[in-house]
Amino acid sequence: MTVAAGLGYVLISLGPALSLFVSVIAKKPFLILTLLASLLFWLISLIVLSGAWRGFLPLKSASWWPYVILIITSVGFQEATRLIFWKLYKKLEVILDAFAEEKFRSRLSWTDKMQIALAGGLGHGVAHAVFFCLSLLTPSFGPATFFVDRCSHMPFFLVSAIISLGFMIILTFSMVIAFNAYAEGSKLDQIIVPIIHILAAAMTLINLAPGGCTIGVPLLYIIGGAVLRHCWQMVWRKLTEQGNRQRNSSDIHVS
Amino acid sequence: MGRSVLDFLGVEIIGVMSPVSICMLLVVLLVSTLSPSASDSAAAAASATTAATLVYDESPSDPPGRRLAGALLNAAAFVALITVATTLLVVLYYYRFTGFLRNYIRFSAFFVLASMGGSILLSILRAAAFPLDAFSALVLLLNLSAVGVPAVLSPAVPVLLRQAYLVALAVIVAAWFARLPEWTTWTLLLALALYDLAAVLCPRGPLRVLVELASSRDEELPALVYESRPASASVSHAVAALGSVELQPVEPAPPNPTLSNRNVDPDRTSVEIESLEEETSPLVPNEPSSSGDARQQDITAEREREREGERNQDPSSSSSLPWPALESDAFDASRGIRLGLGDFVFYSVLVGRAAMYDLMTVYACYLAIISGLGCTLILLSICRHALPALPISITLGVGFYFLTRLLLEPFVIGASTSLVMF
User: Fold this and answer.
1) A51-92 pLDDT, tens per residue?
2) Of A143, A145, B30, B35, which has the most beta carbons under 10 Å away?
3) Is residue B341 within 8 Å of residue B268, measured between CB atoms?
């Protein structure tokens, strides 16, 4: 279609990320750096994956099992990079804590840590949207649009924008869940995050069936909603705990 | 919630990264809006006969071996030219021809803005089919360029304006360079990265001599240099501080002979080469000169005190007692990090070249360059002396370009056109 349509697709896929960026990330330089680092991490993981898969491409689109292998290996590898990212962050956190202790007489608060996790997750989400959706959008600024056979209800660009928005939500907030789980050592959440990721990726497999995107995309958004809800519950729990602790400490102080 | 470390850490890095990002974004927009139009292909072909293609004029029909050899020759000739020009600049600066250099840079900045900027403006107007009569276009252009002349030179201009003009200069030159033929661009970038490495780090490298000379004379670096002001100070405050520095009799007005004298070729293509010597200005940590000049230290301290005073008046920040310490031991408080305009130009050339292939390569190259810049800045805070900003970023950028083009693109397109994502 035209520039308006192209911009619309961009805003569908990246609009929420943009508002998150402006409202939370952009004010704190360190979070921007975290975001960039996480973007770079995700890009490197994708390049390594594509290097490994280079010999087998292009996949024959008739059969679906190569895609299953593709998704399992990719998600497995990306979860591994998430672990590496966490390990690196853990090292950095020690330095940060020391620095904060020295300069501000206080360590990083849990909200700080959560913001860092959010920035890291947003980096993954934005990288996903950028490479899977935004970089294919160039033709949509031109005079035509493009439909794929298996999903003929909507233009391809619109479908990919909607899917990448879903993934943006899932990747961003599952990073918050994962970081919290690693920090608290709760095994359940640590396992849940890869499962969510692989489930979400499996939902896009439904798109391979003719007309499958009418089922796959809503299912993806259900997963996204579940992630959001889980993340919110976790944050809420921490908030109330923190509030109680502060009230307790102030009670002690008063008495 | 009080202030936390997150608010302060990396302010300086972002202060450098954001103008670089803006510059790259503008170049990508320029390249992608201007290059597809057929009317420009003739202009591109004409402009390709610049000094960077002195030796060999690349044409896509040539066999790869010949193109590679020609591109290498071009890069070698170009680097040789730059070396000569930089040496000349150092010699002129050494013998204190600052007045001459200053006037030369004035002329060059005006020339770049008016002629090259004018031609870019023209093609933008043409691409947008915007009806503008010649007279008002001329008035607009001359005014814009005329303001640019004092803006790049004199520190009395508001810092934002100065930064904007420096970025605009970089964008113009980079958009010009992005029209070079493909192979020449890549070899040229790599050669420049190597040159930068040698010129800044070798004991007798011209840039190193220049930086040491400038710091021993306690003057501004004689080149077009982007200075990131401390983001914590408000703009007006930064301006005030700047003005007060320049009123000190200690510092003569910065000579800035970036566009060094190389009037050998009279045609205008020489100008763009000359503006390249901005490349001369490497990344410089702005530490007070170690030659123990007490006055400089005094100024810094004074300014710090002044700023502290201001901060104490500000109720929201009065709690941050250790803040000045934080600022001054991590970086010099008086000024931000300085980055040569040539680095801006060549980062943008890389991204602009990537934009001619696909958007995916643009994102990859952008990330690579920014992370390279981040690495350089981290190294800078460890080494505390001038570092070349090109090598890490350009190497990463070129590497990521080809990785993306050869590996990533078929993979991602194959997966996402069948709507399988992960």
Assistant:
1) 888 877 766 666 778 888 888 999 999 999 999 999 999 998
2) B30
3) no
Query: What pairs with residue B340 in β-bridges?
Result: B225
What is the DSSP-derived secondary structure letter of residue B203? T
The Cα–Cα gap between A220 and B83 comes to 58
Kindly determine whether residue B410 and residue A40, on different chains, have CB atoms separated by under 8 Å: no
What is the value of pTM for the model shown? 0.79
Cα-based angle B74, B80, B83 (whole degrees, multiple of 5): 140
List of chain A residues whose C-beta atoms are within 8 Å of the C-beta of residue B9:
29-30, 33, 96, 99
* A49 to B10: CB separation less than 8 angstroms, yes or no: no
How far, in Å, CA of B260 to CA of B264, rounded? 11
Phi first, then psi, for residue B223 (nearest 5°) are -165, 170
For residue B357, which phi and psi values (nearest 5 degrees)?
-90, -60
Report yes or no: B58 and B205 within 8 Å, Cβ to Cβ: no
Q: How do residues A111-151 score in pLDDT, each as one tens digit?
A: 888 899 999 999 999 999 998 888 888 778 878 788 887 77
Question: In this complex, which of B412, B417, B420 lies closest to A71 when CB atoms are compared?
Answer: B420
ipTM surpassing 0.90 = no
Q: Supply the DSSP string of A11-71, one letter for each residue.
A: HHHHHHHHHHIIIIITT-HHHHHHHHHHHHHHHHHHHHHHHHHGGGPSPPTT-SHHHHHHH
Q: Is B180 helix (H, G, I), strand (E, B) or coil?
A: coil
H runs (alpha helix) in B235-340: 235-247, 269-274, 294-313, 323-330
